[in-house]
Structure formats: C-alpha cells, structure tokens
Amino acid sequence: MDAAWPTSLTRFAGVIGWPVSHSLSPAMHNAAFRALGLDWAYLAFPIEPRHVEEAVRGLFRAGCAGLNVTIPHKHAVLACCDEVTPAVEAIGAANTLVPLPDGRIRGDNTDAQGFLRALDEAAPVDLAGADVLMIGAGGAARAIAFALRGRGARLRVANRTPGKAGELGEAVPFTPEAIAAAAAGAVLVVNATSLGMGSDEVPADLPVAPLGPGTVAYDIVYRREPTPWLVAAAGQGARTVDGLGMLLHQGAAAFAQWTGADPPLGAMRAGLLAS
Ligand code: NAP
Questions:
Q1: Same-domain status, 102 and 122
Q2: Which domain range does residue 240 map to?
Q3: Which residues are catalytic?
Q4: For ligand 1, which residues put their CB under 6 angstroms from it?
Q5: pLDDT, tens digit, 9 for 90 and up, residues 157-207
Q6: Which of 56, 78, 109 is the last residue in one of the domains?
Q7: Do 120 and 105 belong together in one domain?
Q8: Measuring CA to CA, which of 136, 158, 187, 231 is 20 to 30 A from 51?
Q9: What is the total count of domains within the chain?
Q10: 100 and 126 fall within a common domain
C-alpha cells in the first residue's frame, strides 16, 4: 500500500452495524475502489443502537460519501432520512444511505434488487403467477417479499413465529410436513432464515425431499462454500442460488449510487471470496 495513503483528498464510505466486525462489505467495496482506481476507502463503524442517529449525521457532516446499514440499525436509520425510495417505504427498512448535494440524506433498500439480480444471473425463472415458498419472515425476508410481489409471484411463507409469516404472504404452518407440501408445488423455495449459517448439517426445517429439476432453491445465507441445504438440493437436480450473489448485487447497487460509476462486479466478487 502507498505509504502516503490515505491523503486529505481520500473519500470515505462505510457500513454501520452492532456488531459489524463480521461484515464482508469492506472487502467487497475496497476491491471495487481499487479496480476503478478511485481514491476512496470503505470502513466498518461499530455503532451502539442508542447512538445511531448522531453517528449517521456526524459521519455525513464529516464528508462520508455513502453508508450501508446492517443489523440492528436498518429501521432506526429511517429517522435520519429526508427522503426514501419506494422500496424503503414498502419494506420499512433501509440498507443504503446516500448524501444528496443539498445536504439531505436519501434512504434506499437494495436488498430486493440484489435478491432478484442474483436470481436472474444464476437461475432465471418466470415468477409471474408462479408459486413461491419462503421460509423466514425477518428483515431480509421483508425485502424479498417486496421483490417477489413486484414480479407477480404467489408467495407462501413459513416462519417460526407464525404471526410474521402472514404479514408477507399466505402463511404456512412451521411444521416439516406443511413446509414440504408447500415446497412440492413451488418453482422457487427461498431460505430467508439464518438456519444453516454455521452448520454442516441440513437444518431440519428446510425441505429437501420435494426439490428436483423443476425447482430453484435459493439460500440467502452467505458462506464461501454452498450451504448443506443447497448441496442437498443440487444433488436432487434442483437449480441453486447462493447468498453471495445477493450480497454482491445489493452492494453493487449501493456503490453505483455513491460513486456514479458502473460497479466492477468481477473485482467485487473476488474481494468477497478473498475475505
Ligand atoms: P432477522 O431479521 O433476525 O430474521 C431472522 C429469521 O430467521 C426470522 O425469520 C427468524 O424467525 C428465523 N430464525 C432464526 N433462528 C431460527 C431458528 N433457530 N429456527 C427457525 N427460524 C429461525 O435476520 P435477517 O436480516 O432477515 O437475516 C436472515 C439471514 O439472511 C441471515 O443469515 C443473514 O446473514 C442473511 N442475509 C443475507 C443477505 C445477502 O445479501 N445474502 C442479506 C440480508 C441477510 P423468527 O421470526 O421466528 O425469529
């Protein structure tokens, strides 16, 4: 690294979360800045929930050129937004903050478009009028439900806490039998829970038996290797989509808004895989 870097001209962007040390976003965005020769740096800021609003305003006052927002701040940052996109209005959460030239802050949610772009890239499927099963109804699931509604899918949702499922689609009981039955008729089955993050076993609540060549299995959990559920689904002939693609494309959509440049997807993907 150049010993004289960063300089007084270096621009900065970053991610706020609590905790945030696990975030892969710095590796992805710094790889993008390097690939385009931009004198920018991307940092991770651990911000306690009680300090979110003053931290966001302070960072932008100090010249921050863009922020990503991760758990648990995606809803709280709405208090700092002077305008929000329709995606934020529908989802109720922002993962991207953009400083506007007049000093106002725009909130966006790029998770929905990240989800769809990764799907279109890895396993394109016509969702209009199609049955989709989503397992999970947390923050990411809200963005995915918005994305799937936009494509005209008929969404069924199974969630451990049942009341949240009915807010996003037709609720399916959170039992192995009901989940398997709903998966059997679906063209796309999405795991939007955190199940499978740190395990080498297929989680008992994720269906495998009904998946086959006519199904796309999409696991938004991101790991360097495919999750055990995706491996099992692929073994039965299903097409699969992993969470790294969604992470990449939500980041790329934020990058484009901050820099005005075309995101260098290859470099960003390599940055993610090297992190
Ligand atoms: P969240 O808001 O905390 O939601 C967690 C979801 O997982 C809820 O539906 C929760 O059910 C369910 N869940 C957690 N533990 C469970 C268990 N033991 N059994 C059954 N269900 C369980 O989190 P989130 O932001 O939606 O994130 C969910 C996952 O997606 C995480 O692994 C995250 O890393 C990943 N993610 C990936 C991307 C990407 O770009 N690939 C983007 C965002 C998130 P309850 O409602 O019953 O608690």
A1: no
A2: 112-245
A3: 74
A4: 71, 111, 114, 136-141, 159-161, 164, 193-195, 197, 205, 220-222, 243, 246-247, 250
A5: 999 999 999 999 999 999 999 999 999 999 999 999 999 888 899 999 999
A6: 109
A7: no
A8: 136
A9: 2
A10: no
Asked whether residue 92 falls in the same domain as residue 154, the answer is: no
**What would the two tokens of residue 136 be?**
């999970």
CATH number of domain containing 189 = 3.40.50.720
Segment 161-172, tens digit of pLDDT: 999 999 999 999
Confidence (pTM): 0.96
* Ligand 1 atom 39: residue of nearest CA: 247
Give the distance (Å) from ligand 1 centre to CA of residue 137: 8
Atom of ligand 1 nearest to the CA of 246: 40
Pairing between β-strand 96-99 and β-strand 105-108 as defined by DSSP bridges: antiparallel
Nearest to 160 by CA among 113, 205, 125, 120: 205
- Rounded CA gap, 240 and 263, in Å? 24
Are 97 and 36 within one domain? yes
